[in-house]
Amino acid sequence: MKCSQEIVQEILGAEKIVITSHKSPDGDSVGSSLGMLRFIQALGKKATICHPDACPEFIEWLKNKDEIIEFDSEPDRATSEMMAADLLFCLDYNGSGRLGKEMGAVLLATTAKKIMIDHHPEPEDIFDLSVSHPEVCSTSQLIVELILESGNESLLNQAIGTPLYLGIVTDTGSFRFSSVTPRTHEIISALLKNGVKQAEIHEKTFDHNRLDKMKLRGYAIAERLEVLPKYKLAIVSLSEVDLERFNYVKGDTEGLVNVALSIEGVEVAVMLTEDDGKVKMSFRSMGDIVVNTFARDHFEGGGHMNAAGGISFLSLDETIDQIKTFAPAYFGKPHA
Ligand SMILES: [Mn+2]
């Protein structure tokens, strides 16, 4: 990772540091933010994390009370923190739109020096320093690189390493995606050597499922999953009524799209979730099948080759029809 020394110098020279990450937080955005916060604190400086909205329930345990300010519940406080900052980190995202409209506007308005550290392709040109590594599995891995390459391995401890480990685990589907490299495991080795307890992290993250969550997931697979063998495509959809029936809370459908992708013969999976007049879409694919262009071309989305997101303003059923209409041009072709 380039610029490690420069970034640490910026931290040491800053008066007020704010760490931001994307809307609908995930393990990597929360993990990289908390790892960065605690690393900055270990350097003897203070920082504040401002996220657009609340982190999902399954990683609540990671954070201490008051470590993260949520823009949607405290917009004035988050805005004044960001406006007063002279150094602002943009972690795990690559453009102001990923913060949502209001918080994105504050990002563009603040005079703070903006340092982006991210692994999504094609960053916008709004940052003072862009550390962009689309080939790396997670932003959390990049934060560990920052700590190691700036000569600060001695500061790595369980408090810093735990959220970073979690970020890597969640963004790699527990080390299974093709984005995992020998370097990823070297980074994990460094974390374990410095006190991270991986069995405890997996247990706290993955083994505390609410019964309603498991029932919702079972229902989605049993009743709301359709497989189109011709296109090797699986579509799972949940309406607002479905979600209410199982007392949905944020995060309950996390990873469900990968369950659909795991079905024999399926190489592309789409998960659709109805939300307040919109349909949120999550795309996953295997191998050389590309989903980010499909998401970009038709559903105002984008992302990685094998993992992308999108949105539709049609009804759930109309959106499913659209997917079926557009799918033949993209999926189910014989492999080269
Ligand atoms: Mn990420």
Secondary-structure topology with pairs:
Layout: H1 4-13, E1 17-21, H2 27-42, E2 47-51, E3 68-70, H3 75-84, E4 87-91, H4 101-109, E5 113-118, E6 129-132, H5 139-149, H6 158-171, H7 182-193, H8 198-206, H9 211-223, E7 225-228, E8 233-238, H10 240-245, H11 256-261, E9 268-275, E10 278-285, H12 292-298, E11 302-303, E12 307-312, H13 316-326
Parallel strand pairs: 1-2, 1-4, 2-3, 4-5, 5-6, 8-9
Antiparallel strand pairs: 7-8, 9-10, 10-12, 11-12
Bound molecules: manganese (II) ion.
Structure, described:
There is one protein chain. This protein has 336 residues and is an alpha/beta fold. The protein folds into two domains: 4-206, inorganic pyrophosphatase (n-terminal core), CATH 3.90.1640; 211-329, Diaminopimelate Epimerase, Chain A, domain 1. Helix content is 40%, strand content 18%. The protein contains 13 helices and twelve strands. The chain has helices spanning 4-13, 27-42, 75-84, 101-109, 139-149, 158-171, 182-193, 198-206, 211-223, 240-245, 256-261, 292-298, 316-326, and strands spanning 17-21, 47-51, 68-70, 87-91, 113-118, 129-132, 225-228, 233-238, 268-275, 278-285, 302-303, 307-312. Strands 3-2-1-4-5-6 form a six-stranded parallel beta sheet, with helices on both faces. It has a six-stranded mixed beta sheet with strand order 7-8-9-10-12-11. A hairpin with a 2-residue loop joins strand 9 (268-275) and strand 10. Helix 1 crosses helix 5 (139-149). Manganese (II) ion (MN) binds at residues 28, 92, 119, 138-139, 171.
